[in-house]
Specification:
binds adenosine-5'-triphosphate, nine-stranded mixed β-sheet, UDP-N-acetylmuramoyl-L-alanine:D-glutamate ligase, globular, binds magnesium ion, four-stranded mixed β-sheet
């Protein structure tokens, strides 16, 4: 059962400013947008909230600044049922911010780094990790993040890694689940041009874990460490806002895996979680 499974999520929390219009403005144009919202975001926080929505008991390791945005992010996460006791509020820092210009199917993003997550990652103890069934990490492949992954393996927790456009292969060895989108997969150093399935299979063999690639309206592809490739289509929609779709997908797949579901059912859960997020502005309820 997913309910009650304890997941430690390690990753960023952002304050998202999402402005939505049917197209981007041109030079000197004062385009009237359709909607504008501020919402908590960031890959770590989004997946933590998604896992809580799936019924898991979730603890987030992250950092925010001691500004109004940080307070809002913490309140929203707690409101979703996420345990924020390991989210460090850094005195004198701002909360990392992402400005998203969303045109439904497309998005352009600018990010502004704030509070340093390193100290929050460094204070995670073996006991924090041993109290979890699963550890999900997203971020730079730093020694601080690698240490948490090593603690997770030592404690016998399953591990998942969101690659988010980075080559995480050194850190991801032995991680059961590895997430990326098709554009990110194509940019990896050992990518096979125009062949997502072979690229995914190659990285699955390299890290001895499964690699799951999202392909926008085409659904998702799952390459097992043993060399099998499965595809799961999705219901194509016109997204209201794509922010956080990939993070919701990760949460659905992890919840499925913790429930003992086979890969196709896990992907279905991930794709359905993504559809839920794509239909509204901002990644959080
Ligand atoms: N037009 C669409 N119709 C249906 N599903 C979609 C559509 N676009 C994206 N998705 C789904 O949203 C999820 C994430 O999409 P995508 O492959 O674009 O990842 P991403 O760009 O990494 O997302 P994020 O920026 O949130 O990390 C996937 O589950 C994907 O299938
Ligand atoms: Mg992504």
């Amino acid at each position: 059962m997913t309910a009650g499974k304890r997941v430690l999520v390690v990753g960023g929390t952002n304050f998202d400013v999402i402005a939505q219009a049917d197209r981007l403005p041109v030079e000197h144009e004062k385009l009237r947008g359709e909607a504008c919202s501020v919402a908590p975001g960031g890959a770590g926080a989004n997946t933590a909230a998604g896992l809580a929505r799936e019924g898991c008991s979730v603890r987030l390791v992250s950092a925010v600044g001691d500004d109004a945005a940080g307070v809002m992010c913490l309140e929203a996460l707690r409101g979703c049922g996420v345990d924020t006791s390991l989210v460090r509020m850094e005195a004198g820092s701002r909360t990392s911010t992402a400005v998203v210009l969303s045109t439904g199917g497309g998005k352009r993003m600018m990010t502004f780094p704030g509070a340093d997550r390193g100290p929050a990652f460094e204070t995670v103890t073996g006991d924090d990790v041993r109290g979890s069934d699963h550890v999900h990490v997203v971020g730079e492949p730093t020694p601080a993040l690698k240490r948490i992954v090593d603690l997770a393996h030592e404690a016998g927790c399953s591990v998942s890694v969101e690659w988010n456009g980075r080559d995480m292969s050194a850190l991801a060895v032995g991680a059961a689940l590895n997430f990326m989108n098709a554009d990110e997969a194509a940019r990896l150093p050992r990518a096979v041009p125009f062949d997502t399935a072979t690229t995914a299979r190659r990285y699955a063999a390299l890290v001895s874990g499964d690699v799951i690639v999202t392909m926008g309206p085409e659904g998702a592809l799952w390459a097992t460490a043993g060399g099998k490739v499965l595809h799961e289509p999705t219901r194509q929609v016109d997204p209201v806002d794509r922010t956080g779709g990939g993070d919701a997908f990760d949460a659905g797949v992890i919840a499925g895996r913790l429930n003992g579901d086979p890969p196709k059912v896990c992907m279905r859960r991930g794709l359905d979680a993504a559809l839920h997020v794509l239909g509204r502005i901002g990644a959080h309820p």
